[in-house]
Write a structure and sequence with these properties.
elongated; two-stranded parallel ribbon; 5 strands; mainly alpha
Length: 230
């Protein structure tokens, strides 16, 4: 984590909004880094006040502003510096964004904001931010191509990479989903979001948490006290 855009994204993962960050020019800094944390390889942002080395990339902009401090305008200089960094941060975050990416971000805002229903929003907010982005990409794809078992399976694997999805041969509309994880309220809500957003209407799914249902001839699924009844 070195650049201001990376700092802002890591802060968001910790629940700190970009507009709540306050940037300051660090007194002690390395000329080879933009960030000025006490630990060079720090990857988590916990504080809203961020010290950086603005001269690393923006020397032409800030060298005159940082050259000297005038006592009567010291506070003004600090806030002017923060405002300027936020403008540059916004440019950083938007640089190279495609029309498709803008649509995906708008979908994410609408889902989290309750436009798809309050329950969907609550379930969505139980999901980690990087998984939210991947799932929203699939929501966008579904808007273009329609729902399908392929997209549903991809969405499940975003949350649980080791999950297994089965289709009952005798009844094609019935699915069995095994999740190799212990059920908690948060995890169940996350999965509920995927079920509500991606499962085609004509299908039904039964979820098995932690323990697989027994399959004759497959020893791993036939362990005593580790078999889910189907």
């Amino acid at each position: 984590m070195n650049f201001i855009w990376d700092i802002a994204l890591r802060a968001k993962e910790s629940g700190i909004k970009e507009e709540d960050l306050f940037f300051e020019q660090a007194e002690d800094y390395s000329p080879y880094y933009e960030q000025s944390f006490s630990v060079i390889n720090q990857d988590v942002v916990r504080k809203k006040r961020i010290e950086i080395n603005a001269l690393y990339r923006f020397c032409d902009i800030f060298r005159d502003l940082l050259k000297e401090e005038v006592d009567d305008f010291e506070e003004f200089q600090r806030y002017l510096f923060d405002c300027a960094i936020h403008v540059l941060l916004y440019t950083d975050l938007k640089h190279g964004i495609s029309k498709r990416e803008l649509y995906i971000r708008k979908f994410m805002e609408e889902i989290a904001g309750g436009n798809f229903g309050e329950e969907v929003a609550r379930n969505f907010n139980c999901i980690k931010s990087h998984q939210q982005n991947r799932l929203t990409t699939l929501v966008f794809a579904q808007q273009q191509t329609g729902s399908s078992l392929v997209l549903f399976r991809k969405a499940v694997l975003v949350l649980y990479p080791n999950a297994m999805l089965y289709q009952v041969k005798a009844e094609k509309q019935k699915l069995l989903l095994y999740v190799d994880d212990r059920k908690t309220e948060r995890k169940e809500r996350a999965l509920r979001f995927v079920l509500e957003m991606f499962l085609p209407l004509s299908y039904q799914v039964r979820v098995f948490w932690k323990y697989h249902f027994g399959v004759i001839g497959v020893d791993k699924t036939m362990k005593i006290n580790e078999i889910e009844i189907y």
